[in-house]
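Reopening: C-alpha cells for the alpha-D-galactopyranose complex, inputs below.
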Amino acid sequence: MFPGDFSKKPCYSIILNIQTILRKTMKKYIGEYFIRHLVLFSILCIMLSSAVFAKEDGLARTPPMGWNSWNAFQGNISEAKIKTTADLMVSSGMRDAGYVYLVLDDGWMAKERDTNGNLVGDPVKFPSGMKALGDYIHSKGLKFGIYECRGFLTCMKLPGSFNHEEQDMKTFASWGVDFIKLDGCYAERNGRLSSEELDLYSKSINKTGRPMILSISDFGNGSWAWGAKESAHMWRTSYDIYRSIESVYSCANTTAGDDVIHPAFNGLWQFAGPGHWNDADMLQVGNLKNSKEDKIHFSLWCILTSPLMAGNDLSSMSDSVRNILTAPEIIAVNQDPRGFQGYKVYQHGNLEIYNKPLSDGTAAVLLLNKGDRHDDITVTWDKIGLKGKQKVRDLWERKDLGEFIDSFTATNLSKNGHMMIKVGTPGNIQIPGPLPVPVEKYTVTKTGTTWLSDLYYVMKYGDAPQYDANYNGDPISVNGINYNKGLVCRNSSRLMFRLNGKANRFKAIVGTDASCRGNETSRFRVLNEDFFGNQVLFDSGKIKADSSVKIDINVKGVEYLLLMFEGKKTSGVWADAKVINTEN
Ligand code: GLA
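Re-run output (same inputs, fresh job):
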C-alpha cells in the first residue's frame, strides 16, 4: 500500500459502508440536506483515518533538530564528552535555537549483551550507565537519542538488534530514550523485507508506550519509494556524508536531484511532509574548509527541509560556526510548519535556484553558484508562482532589500557563493507548490501488460538507464534480435519499480546490447523490494556478452521490484521487460 493511499485502508471501506447504509435509511426520513452534510462528514473521517494510519504521531511535525556524535567523534565517545556536549548545547544557544536531540551514534555499547540478553553501555566509556546519562541529558532540557542497527551487528561490529527488537526498544524506553537512529549494516542477512522490519520496530516502540522518533539510516535504500513513512519519521537518502563540499553537494542532490529517482520527479520533495522527512544526512557545518562552505551547506539543508543534526565538536566551535548553526531566519525556513520540501526550479551549468513555498504566503529562494567563475543569478517570479512587485528579504543578513518587479538578481556570486532570500508579503495566501507526479506514472495500475519502460522508476542507484533504446539512441538489440521496449543499463545499477501487488508475472530477456561486443560478463538479478531484504526472485549468474537469458517469474504480491545489473564496460539490457496482471 502506498503512503497516503487511504482508499486501501480498512477504515475507508468501513466508513463508506456506514455511509451507504445511513444514506439509504435517512433518505427515507430526513431528506437530501442532511445527507449532503453526512457526505462532508464522511470525507472528513476519511482524511482523519489517513492521518491516523500514516506515521503522523506529532513527534516530528517539523524536521527534527539536534546534535549527533558521529561526524565529530566517530566511535570515540565517552560520558565526559557527551555531558560536555550537553552543557555546550545549552550555553551556546543551540538548544534554544531548536537543537534538542542529543544523539549518541555507534560506539556507545559494550561488546556483549548482559546475561539476560540486554544491551548495556560500554562500562569504560560510560561508567555511570545509559539511564544516568539520559537523566543528565534530560536535566539540561534536551532529549536523548541513541544509535542501533537492525543487523546482528552495528557498523562498528557491536551488538545489533536483530532478534532482540522488542527487548531493545523496551531497554531504550527504560533509559528514557526519545530518538532512535536505526542503521542497516548486515540487515541483508535478516531475511526480512525492510518494510516488514521497520513495521516490527515501529510496533515494538509503540508497545513501550514511550514516544520515540524512528530515524532510518540505511544507505542505498529507497525508503521514500516503498513507504517508510508508515513506520519511520525520517530516512537517509544518501551514502555517508563526509567533510567536503563535494560530499555535501552529492548528498543534497540525492534529495533534490535525479541521483536516486527518475528525473520526472524533480527530487524527492513529494515524499516528504510533516511527520516524515528525507534526511540528507547529518551536518558537517563547522567541519568544512571555510564559513562560505559551512553556510551553503546549512542553507541547502534548510531549504531542502532535511533534519538538522549538527556534527561538529562543540567544545571548539567558533563564533562564526555558532552563528551559522543558529541563524534564526535560515532555521525558520527549515522549520516552517507547512513542511513543504524545497525543490529545484532552475539549473544551468553550475548555477542553481531552489524554491520552498512557506506557510505565511511567501517563498524562500536559494540562489547558488557552484562554479569557479563569478556569476549573476536571476530568479524570475514566474518560477516561484508569483508576479508583479514583490518584497525581498535577505535571510542571512536579516535585512529587507526592497521591492522588485518580476525578478531578483543576486550579483557577482563567487564559487560556492549563494543568497537565501524570502520573497513576498507575509499574510498572503499560500503559494501553491508544484504538482506531484501522478501515481499511474510510476505504478502498475492496470490489468494486462505493463512494460516497465512505460513507468518511471521510484529509486535508482548507479547510472541512469536508457528507455526503449541503447546509449547511442539506437534500437535495443540482444543476441541478434531487436526490441522496441526495454531498459538499458551500464556499470552497476539498481532500479526499483512499483508493482503495487498488481502483477503476477515478470518477463524479460536479459543480455548485452549489440553496441557492446567485448568479453565482459554481466549479471542480472531481480529482488523483491530493496537490497536489504535480499529476497532474490531471479539470478542470471554471470552471463557472457554473446548470450541471453529469458526471465519468466512469479511476482504475485510483490509491491516493489528491484532490478539489479552488474557489469563493467558493457550495456546490460532488460529487453521487453514487462509485468503481467492476468487477474480481474
Ligand atoms: C553508518 C551510518 C553512519 C554512522 C556509522 C556508524 O555508516 O551511515 O551515519 O552511524 O554507520 O558506524
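The pocket of alpha-D-galactopyranose is lined by residues 70, 105-106, 147, 154-156, 183, 217, 219, 240 (CB under 6 Å). The two ends are 19 Å apart (CA to CA). Marking as resolved unless the reporter disagrees.
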